[in-house]
Specification:
The chain is of the alpha/beta class. The chain contains 8 helices and 5 strands, in the order βαβαααβαβααβα.
Length: 188
């Protein structure tokens, strides 16, 4: 079983690497960002609420995010493992995830942090915004998202490191090379 969390700042390549890694391991990649965007495009109540926070470069409130993750982890395809991308982002969410997994006598197998250069991340996100027409990826919003990440999410690496679960992987370079480094970190 592989129960994994993928951490890293916005633009670190988490979405791309989550798909690659999940495919290699035969587990679903579960992205809160994809769930939020689907709800926004469908105009659901959750989507409208999430949109307000995403437009400001802020995180969607824990109670909304936790409920979505709990439902997703209960899906049959996640029974033998999963890779979470974009969750948990706060210590409170770590505690909620521990509780969700603990209800089934489970825990995480590993937490991987993709590390990247901040200036490179800004360039990547501006390019992605141009290509994909993402209105939430303006430079001021990108910089705010990075600030929020380092303020609220980076402390998770210390917590998971203290549990012996953290593996740091260089997220710079060719997609295939980064995937090889990720797999080596998991099996090494």
């Amino acid at each position: 079983m592989s129960r994994l969390v993928l951490l890293g700042p916005p633009g670190a390549g988490k979405g791309t690497q989550a798909k690659e890694l999940a495919g290699s391991l035969g587990i679903p990649a579960i992205s809160t960002g994809d769930i939020f965007r689907a709800n926004v495009s469908e105009g659901t109540q959750l989507g409208r609420m999430a949109q307000r926070f995403m437009d400001a470069g802020e995180y969607v409130p824990d109670e909304v995010t936790n409920a979505m993750v709990r439902d997703r982890l209960a899906a049959p395809d996640a029974a033998d493992g999963f890779l979470l991308d974009g969750y948990p982002r706060t210590v409170a969410q770590v505690e909620e995830l521990d509780s969700m997994l603990g209800e089934h006598g489970q825990g995480l197998d590993a937490v991987i942090e993709l590390t990247v250069d901040t200036d490179e991340v800004v360039k990547r996100l501006l390019k992605r915004a141009e290509i994909e027409g993402r209105p939430d990826d303006t430079e001021p919003v990108i910089r705010r998202r990075l600030e929020v990440y380092f303020e609220q999410t980076a402390p998770l690496t210390q917590l998971y490191d203290s549990r012996g679960l953290l593996r740091r992987v260089d997220g710079m370079g060719d997609v295939a090379d980064v995937t090889k480094r990720l797999l080596a970190a998991l099996h090494g």
